[in-house]
Amino acid sequence: MNRKQSVIIVGLLALVAFTGYLAIQLNSPIYDANAPLDDKSAVTMKETKASGGGFFVEQRLTRDRSKATAYQTLQNLIDDENAPKEEREKASDQYRTLALTSEREVDLESKLKGKGFEDVICFIDGNKVKVFIKSSKELNESQIKLIKDEVLSSTKIKDVEITVKK
């Protein structure tokens, strides 16, 4: 594979990452102007109806497909002997970062489900964590604090956006 092909692969990877980011942004709520901003943390409460859990299944499938495509693209670049060494090293670093982020998301979801929430899906995007909670009623302050504390202890990220799906 020549340099042109490597650039195309990196471009496609960037496109996949941008598409994932855009999907998250379009499906997430805007910040609530009345939400407390203490400790550089923002919590947004938005209640929407999720039919049966379809939202959570759909989001997991979308996330898994997007990450599988990114993994494959990165692995192809890493395995390409003709790609410049710097690009292969960069792809390897991105692969590790993506794997670590995926592991943290799943771990955080498991911990929050273990705390009694019916269903949870988390997205870690740089220095922000989006948490979608399935609940038939509004979260109380102790539940919000529990989620924020778990996110902070698992990811060391203070910027948390919480959305309640009914």
TrEMBL record:
Gene3D superfamilies according to UniProt: Stage III sporulation protein AH-like (1.10.287.4300)
Highest taxon listed in the record's lineage: Bacteria
Record-linked InterPro entries: SpoIIIAH, SpoIIIAH_sf
Name assigned to this protein: Stage III sporulation protein AH
Species this chain originates from: Hathewaya histolytica (Clostridium histolyticum)
Lineage: Bacteria, Bacillati, Bacillota, Clostridia, Eubacteriales
